[in-house]
Predict the structure.
Amino acid sequence: MKQGTIVSLVTLSGEFLGKWEKEENGNITLNNPRMLVNTPDGKIGFARGVCMTGTENTKEAMFYAGGVVLATETNPEFSAAYTEAVTGLAVPTGKVIL
């Protein structure tokens, strides 16, 4: 994967989105990782970090090889939602006339 690409990691404990930083010895490091969570109204949202006891809005996290099931580029809708969650900036997903 290319550094800076928004990726989805499926792990044994859940699904995470973040910007690909590096892969070393099978371990994957993501910048600004966010865990996907279900909301009370049945929608999907982003946790403000990667675990209940970790720091809020973690800047970087390493996922160990044994716990990662797969890594893939994130689809455009989730990529735009992730960018908005991390930066506060809405990203147009369709054609835009400027």
Remarks:
- The first helix runs from residue 76 to 87.
- The mean pLDDT is 91.
